[in-house]
Specification:
This protein is α/β, with parallel strands linked by helices. The protein is built from 16 helices and twelve strands. The chain folds into two domains: 284 residues, TIM Barrel; 108 residues, Alpha-Beta Plaits, CATH 3.30.70. The structure holds 1,3-dihydroxyacetonephosphate (13P). 1,3-dihydroxyacetonephosphate binds next to strand 3 and strand 8.
Length: 406
């Protein structure tokens, strides 16, 4: 269960004036550290994967660990694509398990930003996935996450924000109100009155990028003006680096010795944030108030009026085509193990969300495959969609499973 609908999670934060940390992960130590912090402080959390960081890890491999960590958690977790570069990136991230996406077109002129973001929201709607858009520009100044965000700060305009949300239908808006990515140089010029006006005009959860390095009272003023998700990375990277430096200074050698304690340093930093931003202690309330994120299995069993060779060729084509449709996570196709089974062949298509039942059925690639290759030979078939059912493990059983595998 603990993967929850990110829209419900952030609406709860928005209604109750706290912010959920969206921590960018770049390694297993980050996943472990952030989840340890969330479990220790009983906080909802967002595990974020930023496309500009994909040069540092294998996205597909790390996503397996991220999804597993979220599934076995006892606190509510959402998995988010941060700063995606295109609709294709968003489709791929949904296939790999993200249940919230941001495609960042904030460096483009307004009309182009609207056009690109609209493409993402139209695709994501059909997958049941909420979308974060960004308007205005949050640059980098110096330090770990800065160089990927070149250029000057552009504050978000209230009238453009209204038009942007209306035209794109984004669920959350990342605003630029004076923060920067990376280490902050000097005192940031935060424009609280602009934020207040944007919040009044929109009434949707707002997102802060460049979360590292603000003072406690700055965070609380931002949160009381609608910031419900805080993106945070550089401080986690810096505390990890400091820990490695300490290990070197104490004469340690070898990989495991040098990275020893990194996950715990990350946990301490993230836990501080969770307390500071007001999400600590709210895990159970969020679990009660949010829908769990349940995949759907689209099952077809059938007999075919064709040779086995023809059926296998059709299966192979279908697997190729259907697995590319947005919201499809995996396609299994098989022959019955038992000779004489009532139905000889199967498809098992895993959708990320029940919304995909309709968008998949109506997708032109599905229609073309089904009408031209599948239905003509598979007249005798049964097709049913199944939603995953929650296991009956109690919270204390799940907590003890997390402790054992930690
Ligand atoms: P910092 O690196 O400044 O914490 O910002 C992270 C961020 O905004 C990622 O989207």
């Amino acid at each position: 269960m603990p993967i929850v609908d990110m829209k419900g999670m952030l609406e709860h934060a928005y209604q109750n004036s706290y912010a959920v940390g969206a921590f960018d992960v770049v390694s297993l130590d980050f996943v472990t550290g952030i989840m340890t912090a969330a479990e220790r402080s009983r906080s909802p959390v967002i595990l974020s994967l930023a496309e500009p960081h994909f040069a540092y890890f294998d996205f597909e491999l790390l996503m397996s660990a991220v999804e597993r960590a979220a599934q076995r958690a006892t606190v509510p977790v959402a998995i988010h694509l941060d700063h995606g570069a295109s609709t294709e990136s968003a489709v791929q991230s949904i296939r790999l398990g993200c249940n919230g996406v941001m495609v960042d077109a904030s460096h483009h002129p307004f009309e182009e930003n609207v056009r690109l973001t609209l493409g993402v929201t139209q695709m994501a709607r059909g997958c049941g996935i909420p979308v974060e858009g960004e308007l205005g520009y949050v640059p980098g100044v110096e330090g770990e996450d800065a160089e990927r965000h070149p250029g000057e700060l552009v504050y978000t305009s209230v009238s453009e924000a209204k038009a942007y949300v209306q035209r794109t239908g984004v669920d959350f808006l990342a605003v630029s109100i004076g923060t920067v990515h990376g280490r902050i140089k000097g005192n940031p010029r935060l424009n609280y009155s602009r934020l207040e006006e944007i919040n009044e005009a929109l009434g949707i959860p707002l997102v802060l990028h460049g979360g590292t390095g603000l003072a406690d009272e700055q965070y609380s003023r931002l949160i009381s003006n609608g910031i419900s998700k805080i993106n945070y990375y550089t401080a986690l990277a810096d505390t990890s680096g400091a820990r490695i430096q300490q290990n070197i200074q104490s004469g340690r050698q070898g990989y495991t010795a040098l990275v020893g304690g990194v996950a715990e340093s990350i946990a301490e930093e993230a836990e501080c944030c969770m307390h500071l931003w007001g999400s600590a202690g709210l895990a159970d309330e969020v679990l009660k108030n949010c829908s769990s994120w349940a995949p759907v299995e689209h099952l077809i069993i059938y007999n075919a009026d064709a040779s086995e060779k023809e059926v296998h060729a059709m299966m192979s084509e279908g697997k190729q085509v259907l697995s590319q449709i947005p919201g499809v996570r995996a396609v299994f196709t098989g022959d019955a193990v038992q000779q004489g089974a009532q139905y000889r062949f199967s498809w098992l298509v895993r959708f990320c969300h029940s919304a995909v039942i309709d968008s998949y059925r109506d997708h032109p690639d599905h229609i073309a495959f089904a009408d031209n290759l599948f239905r003509p030979i598979a007249g005798d078939r049964i097709s049913i969609d199944y939603r995953a059912v929650e296991g009956s493990r109690s919270l204390s059983e799940r907590k003890s499973a997390v402790r054992k595998s930690a």
